[in-house]
């Protein structure tokens, strides 16, 4: 196991790159797109929902920007510590659960 994350390694990216996670995300995306294409009413509901989520995300980012800017120096070290702990946890999970290295269909 790797044990300690290099600075450039990101725990979230590692999780998303696990075959079981990436294949699940791909399957969900295909199902979502297929459902939108097959059902026009569902497509319009999904589009409204997607626009709402995008708007809410943009508003949250705009509202948090001053706080993040002020806390940035403290946040960087806290994020680095949290990322390192998460990477260690991933090392342990990958070691103990080999199935994480396989796509969902396997």
UniProtKB/TrEMBL annotation:
Keyword Acyltransferase: yes or no?
no
- Can you supply a Gene Ontology BP term from the record? lipid metabolic process
A Pfam match is Perilipin
**Which locations, inside or outside the cell, does it occupy?**
Lipid droplet
Q: Which UniProt keywords apply?
A: Lipid droplet
Q: Give the source's domain of life in one word.
A: Eukaryota
Protein family according to the UniProt entry: Belongs to the perilipin family.
Q: What is this protein called?
A: PLIN1 protein
Q: Which organism is it from?
A: Notiomystis cincta
Lineage runs: Eukaryota, Metazoa, Chordata, Craniata, Vertebrata
């Amino acid at each position: 196991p790797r044990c300690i994350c290099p600075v450039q390694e990101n725990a979230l990216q590692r999780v998303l790159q696990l075959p079981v996670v990436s294949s699940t995300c791909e399957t969900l995306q295909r199902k979502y797109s297929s459902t939108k294409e097959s059902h026009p009413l569902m497509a319009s509901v999904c589009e409204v929902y997607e626009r709402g989520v995008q708007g809410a995300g943009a508003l949250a980012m705009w509202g948090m920007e001053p706080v993040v800017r002020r806390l940035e120096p403290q946040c960087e070290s806290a994020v680095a510590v949290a990322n390192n702990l998460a990477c260690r946890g991933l090392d342990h999970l990958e070691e103990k659960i080999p199935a994480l290295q396989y796509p969902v269909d396997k």
